[in-house]
Amino acid sequence: MAWRPVLATVVYYIVSPVLGVVFFLSTLTSTLLSPLTHLLSYIMYAALLPLRLLARLETLYVYLGVAVLVGLASGTLLHLSSGTLVAALDLRARPGEDEAPRSTYSSSIDARRARRAAVRAKRQQAGDLPSPGSPEGLRHGGLDVGLKREYADWLDKDRGRKREGLLGQTILEEEDDASDYYDL
Question: In the chain, which end has fewer C-beta atoms inside a 10 angstrom radius, N or C?
Answer without folding.
Answer: N
